[in-house]
Input
Amino acid sequence: MKILHILRSEPDDMVRFLVKGMSGGESSGEVPLYRGPVDYGKLVEEIFRSDMVICWW
Output
């Protein structure tokens, strides 16, 4: 199962812990929206390629 984590703001220690725990051995990716310009076309492609998408505020 491929999990995609979309991070709206820089994650604190608790969010990092949860992301790592939820991904536990699964294929996962992260999209850090807080780091600057985002290629939304590529983001949409990644969303549709993933089995699960989790958005973090």
